[in-house]
Write a structure and sequence with these properties.
The chain is mostly helical. The chain has a domain at 106-157. The chain has five helices and four strands, in the order H-E-E-H-H-E-H-H-E. It has helices at 3-38, 68-78, 80-91, 113-122, 127-144; strands spanning 47-49, 54-56, 100-103, 152-155. The strands form two sheets. The protein has a two-stranded antiparallel ribbon. Strands 3-4 form a two-stranded antiparallel sheet. Strand 1 and strand 2 form a beta hairpin. Helix 1 packs across helix 4 (113-122), helix 2 (68-78) packs antiparallel against helix 3 (80-91) and helix 4 (113-122) packs across helix 5 (127-144). The model has no long low-confidence stretch (mean pLDDT 85).
């Protein structure tokens, strides 16, 4: 297979693998804080040590930097004239040039299991782990039910 063809196929496979993994990652990132807040250690005085796991609650005073929006709002209160000028500078739009690489599969062409396994191996998975993960990724990808026959693009500059 031509080197360029192989690179583009690898890019398509990476893009398709990223979608279910990213979706699962997003779900985990949303569920983890909710679950953590539901963990009630009050019966253990904030310090639990079980047979297989442990948890403790610690509070600490932190100085946190003011966020950008909060800082601008405070500046605008203190200096209304300059605050308005600052806000107009922020809202000012500027032209920006972006370069994208568009890629996809030709009609009737499909990625093979070997294409996906190759990408997973390049991510550090063993052959066996990639083989085991492949059906799960494909099932998750189909469950997301997002058409992937369309041309995709990626920012390259």
């Amino acid at each position: 297979m031509e080197v360029l063809e192989k690179q583009i196929i690898e890019l398509v496979a990476m893009d398709r693998i990223e979608i279910p993994i990213s979706s699962l990652s997003g779900k985990l990132k949303r569920q983890k804080p909710k679950l953590a807040k539901d963990v009630d250690l009050s019966d253990w005085k904030g310090n639990y040590s079980g047979e297989r796991c442990y948890a403790r609650v610690e509070s600490e005073d932190l100085q946190v930097a003011r966020g950008m929006k909060e800082g601008i709002a405070e500046f605008s209160k203190r200096h209304p004239k300059y605050g308005a000028e600052l806000q107009s500078l922020i809202e000012e739009k500027r032209d920006e040039r972006e370069t994208h690489l568009y890629f996809g599969m030709n009609p009737g062409s499909r990625l093979s299991e070997a294409d996906y396994i190759g990408v997973m191996k390049s991510l550090g998975y063993t052959e066996a782990a990639a083989q085991n993960l492949y059906p799960v990724l494909m099932e998750t990808s189909r469950a997301i039910s997002r058409k992937r026959e369309e041309e995709r693009r990626i920012l390259i500059g």
